Amino acid sequence: xxxxxxxxxxxxxxxxxxxxxxxxxxxxxxxxxxxxxxxxxxxxxxxxxxxxxxxxxxxxxxxxxxxxxxxxxxxxxxxxxxxxxxxxxxxxxxxxxxxxxxxxxxxxxxxxxxxxxxxxxxxxxxxxxxxxxxxxxxxxxxxxxxxxxxxxxxxxxxxxxxxxxxxxxxxxxxxxxxxxxxxxxxxxxxxxxxxxxxxxxxxxxxxxxxxxxxxxxxxxxxxxxxxxxxxxxxxxxxxxxxxxxxxxxxxxxxxxxxxxxxxxxxxxxxxxxxxxxxxxxxxxxxxxxxxxxxxxxxxxxxxxxxxxxxxxxxxxxxxxxxxxxxxxxxxxxxxxxxxxxxxxxxxxxxxxxxxxxxxxxxxxxxxxxxxxxxxxxxxxxxxxxxxxxxxxxxxxxxxxxxxxxxxxxxxxxxxxxxxxxxxxxxxxxxxxxxxxxxxxxxxxxxxxxxxxxxxxxxxxxxxxxxxxxxxxxxxxxxxxxxxxxxxxxxxxxxxxxxxxxx
Length: 502
Known about the structure:
This protein is of the alpha/beta class. It has 4 domains: 5-117, Tetrapyrrole methylase, N-terminal domain (Cobalt-precorrin-4 Transmethylase, domain 1); 122-247, Methyltransferase, Cobalt-precorrin-4 Transmethylase, Domain 2; 256-285 and 418-501, Rossmann fold; 293-415, 3-Layer(aba) Sandwich (Rossmann fold). The chain is built from 19 helices and 22 strands. The strands form 5 sheets. Strands 3-2-6-1-7 form a 5-stranded parallel beta sheet, sandwiched between helices. A 5-stranded mixed beta sheet has the order 8-9-12-10-11, with helices on both faces. The protein has a 5-stranded parallel beta sheet with strand order 14-13-20-21-22. Helix 11 runs parallel beside helix 12 (345-353) and helix 16 (442-451) runs parallel beside helix 18 (471-479). The longest helix has 14 residues, at 315-328. The radius of gyration is 28 Å and the shape is elongated.
């Protein structure tokens, strides 16, 4: 059997977007991924299907596996022929014990690669508005472990030299030893009025910063109940935080927001949430699939030249329409006389990307608004093609028929429930770690409720803000017993994010 390979990857300081491209490639290649608690869990979305996931996270009071066991695990998996990715918080070479893991691999002639990561020592202070150097304050810094090997007889830290050697001092993993750090630095000449900050879970939605001086920081940390993991930064650069803090000023900072859209469509909403400082958690409760019976759709595509109108009510409808054209080898030029209407700007944008100019785009992005926009252009006996979801509202075809039009209503796609990571979301809800839940359609509401039908949903949602993309979705939620407190005025993803922010 061939020997595998091990990637020793720095996952960055916490924000999942701060991992390197090479780091993502290593995750995607892995047959086995071995990860710790400081690697953001959303990075696991890059893991290929069927890969083995092994958690080896460490807390000060508990180790899932001892370091020697982790070393052996990497060796065993690689010798079994697997590509193994060891995902570690920050940069693996800065107090990440990557040297020990690499030595073990080298002893067994196992190929390995070290993939650097952005170290929390620099990134976390930056997210708190503290640059670690500044030409008006200091041009030197030291990075020190705040948690030395407890089995050592004496410290490797030369406090007498360290205390005043550099303008900025950074301690990693030092919260438990903060009183000792304070005592040693003051004893060895560091001014007790030196500014100091502790930043917990920096770059993440839970980021919390406590600022003080060497003299009073222990008391301030105790009062704030700040615990590990946290970065300690000492020096005059800490005073810049008051002017330079930026991350904590973002409108959605501190908010973990559940995104219930289909996986293929979640990225736009997730990106907007991240841009505004929130943390999106994707829980796609719907999946878009082809219709079970396509015979009617096939017939409509073959008769495209007969239609006076083609009305698209969603991006999914547009995509399925063009997929069907390709599948049946039908040229879009067959649609010679049809006028095109779209219910919203994203639908219109996709149509124009496909080369079709939209004739009608309503100001109100729902069926009622579309009907108002085209009512003066409709003529009895005109033929309308309506490719849309199997569960779409009936108001549009019904009112078109009332006006004397012939409506060919097609199930272009079906929406089915998809709650693959329900257990993970349930745990977050139980731990009250979800602040906002977004619903972008009635089907996301119905499927969300269905996913948790065996759970005490009202209890799980206590203290959680429910946000809806528009009144139709809100009405569906209300009918199912949910209390929506935010409804977007503009029925789009940017409109929903704007409503949440406000």
